[in-house]
Amino acid sequence: MEQIKIISSILGEIESQMYDKQLGPDSLAKQFYTNVSDLQKTFRILTGITIGEYIRFRRLSNAAMSLRMKHLSILEAALDACFETPEAFSKAFKRFHGISPREARQSTDTGETRYFGPMHIKFSVESSAPLAFKMAYLPSLYFVGKSISVSNETSQYEQVIQNFWEHQTLNGSLAYLEQHFQAIAFAGISLPGGQETFIYGVGILTTEPVAAGREWDVVPCMDGSWVQFEVGGETDEDFSRTRNRVLSEWLLVSDHSISLLPEIEYYPLGESESSEIWFPLTSRFKQKG
């Protein structure tokens, strides 16, 4: 629930700081005392776009109205929208609206430009099958595999990750890892990256300690309490649907808080188990017994 409240507040804060050049994921994370990678991921899941995209779309939408109604010059509109140069502004403007700033300034038809209004988080209750999940205290696990840096840009990251899985499968890496390490599952892991990126790895999970080497990336996963959500499928859509429901449904009624990074996509080796998404619990959970 806390994560959703933060995003709702951030949407309002973006409107009040719209023309501040320092406005961005880092400044908002500091303002709300939260991790920037967690914030980026939560925002993207709830809105479908990144913080950077949202700010840029709002500024470009407002710029079209300013050009037409305030009769600003292209330079003035570029500076108003926090672009460094008129050239960068014109390029972004045309990509977003489909016409140049000059054409928008001369046009009297508001339908020629794209309107992107402010977003608001609305809470609603809908009847649906309950999310199947369990909480468990897990010993130390190790992720072993290959990882890449992925852009948070919505139009890019899903295809990049899909291509990365295909590459690691076709080149035999996953089969090698399963044979040479005591794998308990195949896994995809998301880790914090930079302001506009995150780290994504494809490999296996093992309970056996593995020394870091040149050939494979090794990520020790903390021992502690995790919440494990059953996905009910193995496609990107299945995982995305479950991830969205965790944020929009489970967190609204749960007494627990989770961190969205690291996130582990768990793919069992056998057919008797279901695929799962694992998130570390940030609120206290004590193992029974």
From TrEMBL:
Listed SUPFAM superfamilies: Homeodomain-like, Probable bacterial effector-binding domain
Domain HTH araC/xylS-type span(s) in chain numbering: 8-107
Keywords recorded for this protein, A-Z: DNA-binding, Transcription, Transcription regulation
Annotated GO MF terms: DNA-binding transcription factor activity; sequence-specific DNA binding
PROSITE patterns per record: HTH_ARAC_FAMILY_2 (PS01124)
The UniProt record lists the keyword Glycosyltransferase: no
SMART domains linked: HTH_ARAC
Lineage: superkingdom: Bacteria
Protein name per UniProt: Helix-turn-helix domain-containing protein
Pfam families: GyrI-like (PF06445), HTH_18 (PF12833)
